[in-house]
Amino acid sequence: MSPTERLQSVLVALAALAGLGTGLLWPVGPAAGHLVLPALLVMLTAVFLQMDAAQVGAVRRAGAVVAASLVLNFLFTPALAWALGAGLLGDKPDLRIGLLLLLVTPCTDWYLVFTAMARGHTGIAAALLPVNLVLQLVLLPVYVLLLGGQATTIGAAGLTESVLLVLLAPLTAALVLRRTTGRFKGADWRRRRLAAPAGRLVLPLLCLAVAAMFAGQARNVTEHATDLIALFVPLGIFFTVLPLTATGVSRLLRLPAPQRVTLTMTVTARNSPLALALAVAAFPDRPLIAVALVVGPLLELPLLTVIAQLARVREYPPARADTP
Predict the structure, then answer these.
(1) Each residue of 4-23: pLDDT tens digit?
(2) Predicted local confidence at residue 315, as pLDDT
């Protein structure tokens, strides 16, 4: 993990503080708000450019990990997210929606880094990425409309349109770029000249989006500071329950240590950039939902670092992508 990746949560926090200070000192709100969604869409395109669909083949050799991750990510986690929101944020509808958007979206990028840090099976982890992505695309509107309750004031058509914008547009752009460059320049050129530079753009674009969002919503943030602090309790519960549950399921299934690490990381890490983009697109008149989503990675990334160290496989060499 590079020094920049280790400092990711700190850099996101600094971007939020810089945006907040800028928004309080100068009237930049409207202009800053227009930067958020474009920055997030470009960032997601950069994330998808690094996705290698060829690794899906590893899924067929790890059926137990795949089945467990799908159940935990798309059945257990939404139920837990609903329970945490209803039980702890019942009188804060915007925070409930923000929490729900964050918790029902499995990570499609940095969980690979933490899997590698903990010496998990990176091939299976990478193969799960497109599976998680497709299922998010299909199920996100269902989760929000069914579990959001009266707090959700957007219709199915509007939410589906926002999901298609936030997910399908960047994914289509990335696939076209990957196929075109791979055909005319070759896979090695694509990896060195396209995927690798795209990976270096993800964090700066996320910081830009976060800074712009806080600059545009500085007044809302200061007015609802105590409400945002309330998110730490459900988030803390979530990031404790999921690793423990994944560990218990792994032992029940008698998974090898590298696969156990992979399962833990893929069901614990969340896709806050995607959830943030969706919140900006689907709920433009409820900025607190988007602001709430920035609290997630401020707690998630340090905790994932700790979990990666606790779960680190010491009795095995690093698992290669071509071994189950």
Answers:
(1) 666 777 888 888 889 989 99
(2) 42
CA 316 to chain centre: 28
d(CA 218, CA 22): 8
Q: List the domains of the chain with CATH numbers.
A: 3-311 (1.20.1530.20)
Cβ neighbours, 10 Å, residue 75 = 10
For 107-119, what is each residue's pLDDT tens digit? 876 787 778 778 8
SS (H, E, C) 93-124: HHHHHHHHHHHCCECCCCHHHHHHHCCCEHHH
- The two tokens of residue 152 are 């959700």
- Please name every residue paired with 106 in a beta bridge, in sequence order, or none if there are none: 270
Segments of the chain scoring below 50 in pLDDT: 315-324
Q: How far apart are CA 108 and CA 48, in angstroms?
A: 9
CA 3 to chain centre: 20
Q: Identify which of 309, 315, 303 has the alpha carbon closest to the alpha carbon of residue 257.
A: 315
CA angle 267, 269, 275 (to 5 degrees): 110
CA distance 268 to 250: 14
> For the chain, how far is it from start to end, CA to CA, in angstroms?
23
